[in-house]
Write a structure and sequence with these properties.
Order of helices and strands: EHEEEHEEEHEHEHEH
Strand content: 25-35%
Oligomer: single chain
CATH topology of one domain: Rossmann fold
Number of strands: 10
Helix content: 25-40%
Strand order of the largest sheet: 5-9-8-6-10
Bound molecules: adenine
Length: about 270
């Protein structure tokens, strides 16, 4: 690994799947420097004085794992924070809500009967936890965004979040898999299969568990926040496209600004 010298503050990686999710952060980036590596463009720079690398991982677990590995090996990041969107699975998780992951599993991993359904072979585990301290800060950052603000105070809760009255922050399990879940029956089946094995997933997406596994391998703290763009049902593809364009990047930008503020007070 080629980490920068020890007097250099190692950057925080902010990872998103799609350009639309990253746009708000790009606009804030100071001293931006584009580095193309492993078939991707990374942006180095500072956000409110914090050294960061913005990464776009594209979609799916393999793409996410490649990107996480590049962030660690090539950029020597000290932590990875994922911001993006997800489909709501938990009954109380609605479009416009935010889910902060406590842990992740791969819902499409099945090496049975050699290993239990959902277990990652030779890791002896099914779930990969987010870093507890970073996850707690991310939860505070998301809660701050969604907190009702007196009209005149300005910054937080003023933007994207306003469109979703009563939007809530949840904390729990996120299920990842190489599948866009876009049917009510499919979503029910997925949720039930997980519940039968003792896993109550709040949301479904396509990258988080892969990044969590890479971060476990390297001992790099990881946390993820997902805004609910759809309910993984028959309307999922319509809701998803509109939401990513109109809302996701504002959420990402507000939550990350809050997180960096909290990190600087630690
Ligand atoms: N990301 C956002 N919505 C999703 C869905 N319904 N399935 C998988 N990933 C998603």
């Amino acid at each position: 690994m080629s980490f920068p010298s020890s007097d250099h503050v190692r950057p925080t990686a902010i990872l998103s799947a799609l350009l639309a999710e990253q746009r708000g952060l790009m606009e804030l980036l100071e001293q931006p420097l584009k580095v193309s590596h492993a078939g991707r463009d990374f942006w180095q720079g500072t956000l409110h004085g914090h050294p960061v690398v913005l990464g776009l991982c594209k979609i799916g677990k393999v793409a996410a794992a490649t990107t996480a590995t590049a962030l660690i090996e090539r950029f020597g990041v000290q932590r990875i924070v994922f911001t993006g969107v997800a489909g709501g699975l938990g009954a109380a998780v609605r479009v416009g809500d935010v889910v902060v992951a406590t842990d992740f599993l791969q819902h499409d991993l099945d090496a049975s009967p050699l290993f239990a359904r959902y277990e990652v072979p030779l890791y002896g585990r099914t779930r990969f936890a987010g870093d507890p301290a970073l996850t707690a800060l991310l939860f505070s950052a998301a809660s701050r965004m969604l907190a009702p603000q007196p009209a005149a105070t300005g910054l937080n809760g003023q933007g994207a979040a306003r469109q979703f009255a009563g939007a809530r922050v949840h904390q729990g399990l996120i299920a990842s898999g190489d599948r866009f879940v876009s049917g009510a029956g499919e979503s029910r089946h997925l949720r039930q299969g997980l519940a039968d094995a003792g896993h109550e997933a709040l949301a479904v997406e396509m990258e988080g568990a892969a990044v969590a596994q890479v971060c476990l391998d390297y001992g790099v703290p990881f946390a993820a926040v997902r805004t609910i763009s759809d309910r993984a049902d028959d309307d999922a593809h319509v809701d998803f496209a509109q939401f990513v364009d109109e809302v996701a990047s504002h959420y990402a930008h507000e939550i990350i600004e809050n997180l960096l503020d909290l990190l600087s007070k630690k």
